[in-house]
Specification:
Elements lengths: L10 H9 L9 E4 L2 E4 L5 H18 L3 E5 L15 E5 L15 E8 L3 H14 L4 E6 L4 E9 L2 E8 L4 E2 L9 E2 H5 L1
Parallel strand pairs: 5-6
Antiparallel strand pairs: 1-2, 3-4, 4-5, 6-7, 7-8, 9-10
Length: about 180
């Protein structure tokens, strides 16, 4: 069996590739465990759901938190994923000097139609590994919300699936109620 040597990139190297133009603005890459992962193009249904969630979260959460859409977070030295939405601790500089880290994150949301397996098998375990409190996977194909919580090494020990008509409340904000119907429009 042939053993291939792989170069594991750090976040600093990844950012330098973007700054020097090796990775172009129109390229959609995430750094996951030191590897460049092509995120592919965003379809209409995916984009619409992210926009709907962005409005919904801003209405529900108000100005007490920062709602970020499709921007990087930093997980250790080798991962800089771009979740579709992140509910973050509000900072006066809006994270100008550093990307949010796990300590800043209340909730991450991934919206998926064509990327469901990648999100479940790669990104959600990565979030668990870095002790992200809660992750929602918006499954556009089945129109359900998969809720992951209670991180345990590389997985979450609690997984809940919510369907239309059910109410979901983020762990950090139990007073906020969102009807799953609101997510799918």
């Amino acid at each position: 069996m042939v053993q291939l040597l792989r170069k594991k990139f750090t976040i600093t190297e990844f950012e330098q590739m973007a700054e020097t133009g090796i990775i172009k603005d129109e390229d959609r890459f995430e750094l996951i465990e030191g590897e460049l992962i092509d995120m592919g193009k965003i379809g209409k249904r995916h984009a619409s759901c992210v926009d709907r969630l962005n409005d919904l979260f801003r209405d529900k959460f108000g100005k007490g938190v920062l709602v970020r859409s499709q921007n990087p977070i930093q997980l250790g030295n080798y991962s800089q994923p771009q979740p579709d939405l992140a509910i973050l601790t509000r900072k006066n500089d809006y994270y100008e000097t550093a990307h949010p880290t796990p300590e800043d994150i209340f909730l991450l949301v991934e919206v998926a139609d064509t990327t469901i397996e990648t999100d479940r098998e790669i990104k959600i375990p990565l979030y668990a590994k870095h002790n992200i409190l809660e992750v929602w996977l918006i499954n556009l194909n089945r129109e359900v919300v998969e809720v992951y919580s209670q991180s345990n090494l590389n997985s979450y020990s609690k997984e809940t699936i919510l369907t239309k008509g059910q109410i979901i409340s983020p762990i950090s904000f139990p007073e906020i109620n969102i009807n799953v119907d609101e997510i799918f429009g």
